[in-house]
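Form 7-S
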Amino acid sequence: ALVGGLVPSKRFTTAMVLLVNLGFYAATVAYSSSVGNPRALIDLDGRTLLLFGAKEPRLIFGDGEWWRLVTAGFLHGGLV
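Output:
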């Protein structure tokens, strides 16, 4: 493979991606709840998602926030 030994085992990589996803979800639910969203566990508000890195073309291209292309993949709009 091109990257050879640079990428850890599949099991480790999968576990890390799941942990990052779980961490982002927990953080967004906690934040959304703290700003008054009683349904945060199953329905996050758009403002919270934007604050945590949702894809928004105006912010990506206009403000140069290219990191949103990565962080958006770890965000979820709710439990389902």
